[in-house]
Design goal:
Rossmann fold; alpha+beta; about 475 residues; homotetramer; Glutamine Phosphoribosylpyrophosphate, subunit 1, domain 1; 2 domains; six-stranded antiparallel beta sheet; seven-stranded antiparallel beta sheet
Chain lengths: ~475, ~475, ~475, ~475
Amino acid sequence: MDEWMMHCSDKLHEECGVFGIFGHPQAAQLTYYGLYALQHRGQESAGIATVDGLTMHSHRAMGLVTEVFAGNRLESLKGTASVGHVRYSTAGASNVANAQPLVFSFRQGNLAMAHNGNLVNARQLQNHLESQGSIFQTTSDTEVVAHLIARGAFPTIAENVRVSLSMLKGGFALVILTDDQLIALRDPQGLRPLALARMGDAYVVASETCAFDTIGAEFVRDVEPGEMIIIDKAGLHSERYASSAKKALCTFEYIYFARPDSDIDGFNVHMVRKQLGRVLARQTPVEADVVIGVPDSSISAAIGFAEELAIPYEIGLIKNKYSGRTFIQPSQDLRSLGVRLKLNAVRKIVAGKRVVMVDDSLVRGTTSARLVSLLREAGATEVHVRITSPPVKHSCYYGIDTSAREELIAARKTVEEIQEFIGADSLAYLDEEGMLSVFGVEDVTHHGFCNACFTGKYPTDVYPSRSLER
Amino acid sequence: MDEWMMHCSDKLHEECGVFGIFGHPQAAQLTYYGLYALQHRGQESAGIATVDGLTMHSHRAMGLVTEVFAGNRLESLKGTASVGHVRYSTAGASNVANAQPLVFSFRQGNLAMAHNGNLVNARQLQNHLESQGSIFQTTSDTEVVAHLIARGAFPTIAENVRVSLSMLKGGFALVILTDDQLIALRDPQGLRPLALARMGDAYVVASETCAFDTIGAEFVRDVEPGEMIIIDKAGLHSERYASSAKKALCTFEYIYFARPDSDIDGFNVHMVRKQLGRVLARQTPVEADVVIGVPDSSISAAIGFAEELAIPYEIGLIKNKYSGRTFIQPSQDLRSLGVRLKLNAVRKIVAGKRVVMVDDSLVRGTTSARLVSLLREAGATEVHVRITSPPVKHSCYYGIDTSAREELIAARKTVEEIQEFIGADSLAYLDEEGMLSVFGVEDVTHHGFCNACFTGKYPTDVYPSRSLER
Amino acid sequence: MDEWMMHCSDKLHEECGVFGIFGHPQAAQLTYYGLYALQHRGQESAGIATVDGLTMHSHRAMGLVTEVFAGNRLESLKGTASVGHVRYSTAGASNVANAQPLVFSFRQGNLAMAHNGNLVNARQLQNHLESQGSIFQTTSDTEVVAHLIARGAFPTIAENVRVSLSMLKGGFALVILTDDQLIALRDPQGLRPLALARMGDAYVVASETCAFDTIGAEFVRDVEPGEMIIIDKAGLHSERYASSAKKALCTFEYIYFARPDSDIDGFNVHMVRKQLGRVLARQTPVEADVVIGVPDSSISAAIGFAEELAIPYEIGLIKNKYSGRTFIQPSQDLRSLGVRLKLNAVRKIVAGKRVVMVDDSLVRGTTSARLVSLLREAGATEVHVRITSPPVKHSCYYGIDTSAREELIAARKTVEEIQEFIGADSLAYLDEEGMLSVFGVEDVTHHGFCNACFTGKYPTDVYPSRSLER
Amino acid sequence: MDEWMMHCSDKLHEECGVFGIFGHPQAAQLTYYGLYALQHRGQESAGIATVDGLTMHSHRAMGLVTEVFAGNRLESLKGTASVGHVRYSTAGASNVANAQPLVFSFRQGNLAMAHNGNLVNARQLQNHLESQGSIFQTTSDTEVVAHLIARGAFPTIAENVRVSLSMLKGGFALVILTDDQLIALRDPQGLRPLALARMGDAYVVASETCAFDTIGAEFVRDVEPGEMIIIDKAGLHSERYASSAKKALCTFEYIYFARPDSDIDGFNVHMVRKQLGRVLARQTPVEADVVIGVPDSSISAAIGFAEELAIPYEIGLIKNKYSGRTFIQPSQDLRSLGVRLKLNAVRKIVAGKRVVMVDDSLVRGTTSARLVSLLREAGATEVHVRITSPPVKHSCYYGIDTSAREELIAARKTVEEIQEFIGADSLAYLDEEGMLSVFGVEDVTHHGFCNACFTGKYPTDVYPSRSLER
């Protein structure tokens, strides 16, 4: 893997964003803007399905929302209810067949399904379904759910959805469009976020509230873990399909994935990040001249860190905002350019200074090493790295693309070894108690969050193989 | 529908071409060239699936073969066995989900399937499958076959394919790729063509023999109606999955669809066409100065017609060969340009002459009317139209896109009325006996061909609705 | 050069087609259809410029006419006068800067210029212009003409055009659009064709008459060698800018370049070709069972040849019509596929037969060799090659892309050696007298045609270097 | 103009970025990365020209750098010297003919030229050149310079460049590539920036120093106003082509255009912006709970403003980073979405707070009005707007795309009226003295900066019409 790809892969990655709307004459267009607001959750593919009385219309393709629906593609997506999806681009297997929403027909009509998350028992369920003669055209968990629903014994789709859900284990936020209903639900632990809003007479659901603000919808509440919401002409109906499990919202949604202007389960993302920076500053103070953040996701935390220690916050690293998928990698001769192509140190800010570089997470460590080196070349006399989350030591099975465990630097090295690896004058992580204190949680073992990537304590059973790819 | 589209739609249309190869290190590339040779059978979408030990690779998209596999797309299709497909572009529902081969996995492994034809009982089978919980992601018949195979009770795929086939009614040529086999089969009546060839140690199957010539493979024989051929490392194995039905090969394959250099079931297409022209000339002679054909498909027949009557054959209509899907339709003000944009009369050939215009078929009549008018404007003193097939009066249910019956001009008008409609000085069709005489067949009621579109006598049961689209 | 490219390059190539219209509200759209009809004269790039009162609009790009103007590109080309251009794709230097029409502004207003042909003294004129301070942004002759016009001393553009023309030597058909005039002219020898038509009140000019038929314009007459036609609101005005030179129309326009439905200088292309075949048959008869032509350009000649000798004409070679620029070349392992990918022999036609293969010209000989081999593999017992033009031994300096002289097989080998090279049982060329007899010309030394590529006798001075590329 | 376009056009726009390198084996690739770093200066088109001994290679097209050079486009740009250009996208006339570098040949060889800025006497020079017979293929000033150079009387290009420059008036930074030299120069007032760096033995020039950091080149110094630098195999040679004028660097480079990590003429852009915020805070303090900046360009200034008044700085507005040129505008029914689609207020930050919104400039006022409204909807109790530059009242003639003067709100309204128009509780601008104090300049009338857009006092003659478009 070259320098550049190392940088890109040195973060955890969200796998999807979902959006749904019911009861608005501009359903497809609003879904387009909603997905545009959720684009940070996935840039591989985008898709929208709408329903117009009896007919279901859909379009999905590889690319950004603005690319997939360029031209007059939206015009054919008629109807007053819609579901949309954006999907994260993994390095290798870009595949239009895996683009969502998954659209199919079965004996009870048409169905489109958008899914954020990962089922830990998908492989087992698929084996069971195949033994009964099911075929699989994709490698996504979503198709497993589709088969379960289609095999349901009940006369309504909603009932069959409910029963199917009781078989699923893992993290999932699902938005399902039928010929006359929009169904939204969240896994029993609430691992993945999902929120509800109103827009006039219409209802809207989305992975993050920033989508509501973008289209001018009014936030109502978060969908509850284990809750299934059914929206149709009769209005909104809510029920619980799962008995109350311990809530376990993914902390990384706050740390890195979500947009700072989103509120998730009552907390604003930017404010959480800033507070993480403050707590970290209290835990691991350092004498320094300037505090900088790694753009874009660590800016909030850096501001908090700086405020707490009354050290000036500065813009010490500038990110190029015009990167794209067609970017040409440096040739062999120019590989040393590395991370410079995307990030640049502001020499006048850091030269001759003791610098604190705040970053939200540290996965493989390679980018941090480049950034420390970049700051030193720009004249920093000391570089202290502060990470506003605990060391990532375990893989995620709930919809986050962690590297394989052996690539997680904290699974192999001590903090001191990592500090040496990245070449920092000091390195400190936020600890779990500090992280949870931001949410007002004191008991680490019985809190409302999933910290499995830090602790290895998974809130559900985890099965040997999560992969559906043969 | 405007002038231009009328012209395009004034022919029957084939729905697909299929190709398969087993045992060649360049499987994907040869499939590419094979599909390129079969491109006339479908221009909407193209796709190839290959198998490389355990892994199946596939790519399919809207567009011509050369467009779909532009760049280095072929390189990722590794393996020594391959199946490919080209699909016809209907006016409206271009949809990548319907592109083939259909690729799926089930309990017995991976399977890719390419299908030419149409099942008349697809809707009934789908209803049955849905009642058992199947979901459908496409609107193609092929997915019905996939579900049937997956639900089979036998331990091998080949056995489950055989049983599934016994449930199918209609016209189909299927090429199926599994993890270690290539299966090729043809419907019990042989409605759709399929042929077998060798290329060194490799076996090849294709809808038409022109694909063999293009890749330098050696024709072995046609696949028999009701035959299933299984090719694997052990070699080629053939069996009959259906008891011998009356053979009923589609005559339109000769009249219009196939490439002139192909041989189907023992007859060369070009030579059949030329002979059709000769017979028609004997049946409906005419005093004229020159015989011309409508390019490209009627040239062979026109030559035969001219030879029989010893009237000079001439190139009286020239076709523009640079048309493409992005062609801009004439605006309202220029609609009168009509068919001129694609065909032009050679004034020096037809001016002052009595012209026989030979065409292979006449479906809606609108293009013929334009051409007669074009020839008169170019100075023809008389225009006699000769059609080298009988009047098309009935819809096809076996994989041909006939217009709805009410749009078939021969279903509504007498020959005299049609002559008046198209403005010809005389109009004559080849009759069924004459058509069949070309193949050495005398008994019209018990021949080896399907002439249902002329006679309304279908060689299989026909069910009320053939459409899978809800 | 690989097999495939050898085939493509084994013909001479025209370099351009031009079109102009004045006085029609749909000027751009008609130019689009006109260029579409002229597409065979050049597939590299296409462009249109229109004038709308004071403003000139233009668009040009690499690609076919239908590609360059896909979407709503035509809509911005407003105005009632227009000039268009298609350009031939040479193997290497595809370059949008060289796409035409060349559009520029100068002290007398805006000017768009479309040019078919080649100036033999372009390099000298460019040197002269550069010595006076001119800059050149393209490598096309057209820019030389632009500079000459701009430096003219007269108060009207038309006068400056006339004076500039008197400096040009070579072959050219020029269509020039100014803010209020359309100027069309042809070189003094009439080396390149240009014709005039009317369409209601509008005037149209085009390289070939097939463009008139396509848009429904009425042919008026050919533009005369040395004639300049000026069309404006006052109507059409004609004058001679050059004293009468000996006319020298390029014979290859008839032999290969032009569309069969076009008439050039009074002769129909198809009929000339057919007659060339007849004369050749008389000159070099052969005992054979069947006559075939190499598609598409040699079909007319093959029919004439067959008629003359009363041997059956047959369709023995079929061309794939779906080739495109993105066609993937065979890999090293499959190079033997060669010409098969584009042309296929009809086995049932040629097997066991003595075959005459008629071709219009033979430049490098490589494709002919492949075709002879292809026919033998398909079972032909004898293959006799007949070329309906004399041996090409000399380069063209008037706008045709002949290979370098050392690549012209007839410049290096005798007919017997060529016959051996291509593996034919016999090979014969049409001689010059025979070729000219088709046009009713008897005196070879004083005829109205340019045969320089056969004879080396150029109708103008030829300068050492014709290339503008440094 | 709709809501969305109003937002986009509510800033001044830079027109170009230039880059050059001499003496590096990876010249094209480094130019690509350099242009990538300068992409913020222009997103309409990009181009690179290289020279490889005698041959000049170039490619330019519409689009971002990463789009224009996607695939293997860079590979053909061989050579060790290169010049590159990015151009700003104005709303209407996107035109590949205007893309740079302008490449041409003339009697002294090949020349490629990249130009940032605007000549105020371009129209006069063009008139003069046209009267001598020059033709113009573009509407860019650059072509005027090309003609002047080509008409020069001296034996070397460098001498002709020098003489040509003495005729130019206005703002320009030019990088010129010849067959063996790289020439870089800056206008006599230094209106547009240009800097010099080294990279091993190679020399590099660029509009901004961020390009040097990106490729790892070492900053040497700014090019001086009126200086011409000639780089060839003999090394670097500098001379003054203009007597020392009063320096007049564009202040808007600091206020808005340049990247924060660039240093221009000795000042770091981010630090200048922060200081502008501080000075403004001292001049126009306000009681408030939180200070926010409009992303991205006003963040630095907002931090400075907040620090000075010891009010917390917060991230109150979040910008969507995935916008693209294909973004679909809201339909009529959804126009009220307006600025929301691109910017979102963080409700938890601003609700119930007195907010100071810092922006770098205010041109038409429409976006500011939307943002004030957005903040109020998100619960802000007071919104105070602070602009870190003086009111823009005059058009720029030196390469900045100011709106027409009648669209500049400050040219028509008083500050009180503007405050009312945008709906703010208070509005204050930085005054000129305050702005200049940041640079240590006291005497406003005799400083080293161009403030003409604020003051109307232009540092050069200004001619009636600057437009080259007829």
